[in-house]
Design goal:
- The structure is a homodimer of 335-residue chains.
- Chain A has 335 residues and is α+β, with helices and mostly antiparallel strands.
- The first copy, chain A, folds into two domains: 146 residues, 60s Ribosomal Protein L30, Chain: A (2-Layer Sandwich); 180 residues, PurM-like C-terminal domain (Phosphoribosyl-aminoimidazole Synthetase, Chain A, domain 2, Alpha-Beta Complex).
- Helices cover 36% and strands 23% of the residues of chain A.
- In chain A, the strands form two sheets. Chain A has a seven-stranded mixed sheet with strand order 7-9-6-10-8-11-12, with helices on both faces. In chain A, strands 2-5-3-4 form a four-stranded mixed sheet, with helices on one face.
- In chain A, helix 6 packs across helix 7.
- The interface between A and B is large, with 71 and 71 residues.
Chain lengths: 335, 335
């Protein structure tokens, strides 16, 4: 019977039964009304972010299991919540699904979402199902933040240090491995799996926000996540704040496996670190003393990449001391 | 130049320029960060509802202009906010768009959304654009409500009067006219346009919620909107509350044009009123005295349809006094 059940399609099951099936993944008090009800804590602002992912554009069977599509979609939304300095309150999911899709796809997708949300202490609070010719995932995440702890893109000041968490280029390398399994033969199996996981199961950096919130006082911070690439994040912050930046190539953290395996030239590694995208790390501009304290608190899994300067130039200082101007056109555009 | 501009496609314009173009429809303070920030009033709960609409399933060029798709999508979400007894705080829009879509489609769509939201005193607060093979609209509306004024589906009690606002069957007739222009030849032009407008520009009943909130004290109310049909609303409320209902056919309000033009038999008119859907009216269960006061306050554009009874039966009392049991299977299922 189990096999037969796996072959059941969403059209065969029907909307009402599908909904019943999905309710088990949802916060029970949120199910069954026209809308979900939440109670943000007093004095907090509400943060809202939304995202659409389409089969064949943002994900593909070739690289991403249904559970990974669920995890990645949820993680991308939680990363935007973290990028605002907020804590998550919940997430809604709307899905467009072909009638021929096996119900097992849907079960696995929801399991991936629920696993991600459970990991970060939040839950599915609502959603919608629709028929569509292409699998379409639309999520909206809600979070709460004290007004003085909000992290915007537009408040960076000359002299701020630029802190970058984690490593960059790993998700890009993971995608390469999934698309071209012949690539990276000099990597160990452990290294290959770690890079694939960086692509399939990105970790939103809500832990960094919690670390910041333990500082007394909580420092003024500006920033965003690096979902569209490290270079894009620096450029967006500078553009929104009306400032420039000077960043040091030597400070860009790439996966150790890039260095050891010679799988990439150092130029390629830099390219992927700056423009690869989807690492979902945080790029934060802070007064220098707070930046140093944050790097220490994160056990040096973050670095000070450089500093905010007056003007509009965004300069990358190469290892040999030469300067290079960053170019947004290399960043990812959806159209 | 204007004609050339109308022919521009979303792929030709590119994501960054598209976003710039859409910002003019959005609340200015909400644009440019990873997430929008809202401030719900102190002591209020937050209400969240989400919806996905797909070209060819929920709307079509044959019946709905881009501006109407925008208005209808926004109105459906605001109707869910009203159905919770809440006031709107804002709306996010995610769109999946084919690269070949003219930019003018997008402009008109956004104009329709903005017109609807302006009418009801709220705004676009965020969104996402994605490439897709099929036009896909996903919206999430946020609202706020005092906890004691929340309207759920699960709290109806035997003895409650069932108030229904507006008329039912009009949106269904409007759709028929748009799909089959030969239908309804006995209707006047004014009547035809009014029915089409019921389909293309539904009015979420936030005014009814405001009227209720002016009562002292605000009465306990249970209910939902009639987006999936009047019968479906009564059935969902009864199921969620563990009660039955007795409703009077003579009290069901249909458009005057149905009666005058003999465009429908009375059986067909009843069918469309009960099961047609998309009228976006409210079905509210209230203590009888509050129900009477509400009907009076709404200048008798609402009626008392019947009452909640103990048990599980949902009975329609026909004009001749015979009873008929309502059947949810006739309601709309998406798969």
């Amino acid at each position: 019977m189990e096999n037969k059940n796996l072959g059941l399609t969403v059209a065969e099951l029907g909307e009402q039964q599908l909904l019943q099936r999905l309710y088990r993944f949802c916060e029970p008090s949120m199910v069954g009304d026209d809308a979900a009800v939440l109670t943000p804590r007093s004095g907090h602002h509400l943060v809202v972010t939304t995202d659409m992912l389409v089969d064949g554009i943002h994900f593909s069977d070739r690289t991403t299991s249904p559970a990974d599509v669920g995890w990645r979609s949820a993680a991308a939304n939680l990363s935007d919540i973290a990028a605002m300095g907020a804590s998550p309150l919940g997430l809604t999911i709307s899905l467009g699904l072909p009638g021929t899709l096996p119900v097992s796809w849907l079960d696995q997708f929801y399991q991936g979402v629920a696993d991600c949300l459970n990991t970060y202490g939040t839950a599915i609070i609502g959603g919608d199902l629709s028929r569509s010719s292409v699998i379409t995932v639309s999520m909206t995440a809600l979070g709460e933040v004290l007004p003085q702890e909000e992290i915007l893109r537009s408040t960076a000041q000359p002299g701020d240090a630029i802190v970058v968490t984690g490593v960059h280029g790993a998700a890009r390398a993971g995608l390469e491995l999934l698309l071209h399994p012949d690539w990276g033969q000099t990597l160990s199996l452990t290294e290959r799996l770690a890079l694939q996981k960086a692509h399939q199961r990105p970790q939103p950096r809500l832990d960094v926000i919690q670390a910041l919130q333990h500082f007394t006082p909580v420092p003024r911070a500006t920033g965003m996540d690096s979902s569209d690439g490290l270079a894009d994040a620096v450029l967006q912050i500078c553009r929104a704040s009306g400032v420039g930046a000077e960043i040091q190539q030597t400070q860009i953290s790439i996966p150790d496996s890039f260095k050891n395996s010679q799988v990439l030239t150092s130029e390629q590694a830099l390219e992927w670190a700056l423009y690869g995208g989807e690492d979902f790390e945080l790029v934060l501009c802070l007064p220098l003393s707070s930046a140093q304290k944050l790097v220490e608190k994160l056990d040096s899994t973050a670095v000070i990449l450089g500093q905010i300067i007056a003007g509009n130039d965004i300069k990358l200082i190469r290892k040999d001391g030469t300067k290079y101007f960053l170019d947004l056109q290399k960043g990812y555009q959806h159209f």
